[in-house]
C-alpha cells in the first residue's frame, strides 16, 4: 500500500450511518416497488436497475481503491465500471421520465436509489478499511492472518 495513503479506522458512527443509508435506501426503494400499482415487468425493471446500480457502484469503488493502493486494475475494467454505473443511473432516469407516476413518486424512487448507491459505496469502503486494520492486528499479535 502507498505509505502516503494510510486508511484511518472508520468510527462506529460512520459504519452505522453507512449501513443505515444502504438499508434505508434499498428497503425504501423495494417497499415502494412492492406497493406500486405497476405491472410486474415494470417492477422487475426497477428491481434490476437497483441491483445493477448497487453492484456497479461497489465495483467502481473497489477499482478506485485498488488503484490507489497500487493493486493492478485494467483500464478496460475500470472503464466498464464507470460505464455500468452511468448506465444504471441513466436507465433509472429514462424509466422514471417515461413512467406514468406522480412527480413525488419519481422523486421517491430517484432519492432512495441514490441513497442506496451512496450507502453501498460507504459500506464497501468501511469493509475494506476494517479488513485492513484486522489484518494489521493479526500480524501484530503474531498470527499469520488466516
UniProtKB/TrEMBL annotation:
Residues 14-66, 77-129 form the YiaAB two helix domain. The chain crosses the membrane at residues 12-33, 45-64, 76-96, 108-124. Signal peptide: none annotated. The keyword Transmembrane helix applies. It comes from the Bacteria. PANTHER family: INNER MEMBRANE PROTEIN YIAA, INNER MEMBRANE PROTEIN YIAA-RELATED. This is YiaAB two helix domain-containing protein.
Amino acid at each position: 500500500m502507498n505509505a502516503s495513503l494510510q486508511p484511518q479506522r472508520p468510527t462506529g458512527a460512520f459504519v452505522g450511518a453507512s449501513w443505515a443509508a444502504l438499508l434505508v435506501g434499498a428497503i425504501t426503494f423495494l417497499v415502494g416497488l412492492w406497493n406500486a400499482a405497476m405491472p410486474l415487468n415494470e417492477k422487475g425493471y426497477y428491481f434490476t436497475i437497483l441491483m445493477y446500480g448497487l453492484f456497479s457502484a461497489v465495483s467502481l469503488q473497489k477499482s478506485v481503491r485498488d488503484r490507489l493502493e497500487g493493486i493492478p486494475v485494467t483500464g478496460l475494467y475500470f472503464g466498464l465500471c464507470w460505464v455500468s454505473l452511468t448506465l444504471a443511473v441513466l436507465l433509472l432516469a429514462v424509466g422514471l421520465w417515461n413512467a406514468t407516476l406522480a412527480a413525488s413518486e419519481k422523486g421517491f424512487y430517484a432519492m432512495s436509489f441514490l441513497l442506496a448507491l451512496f450507502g453501498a459505496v460507504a459500506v464497501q469502503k468501511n469493509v475494506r478499511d476494517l479488513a485492513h486494520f484486522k489484518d494489521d492486528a493479526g500480524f501484530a499479535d503474531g498470527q499469520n492472518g488466516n
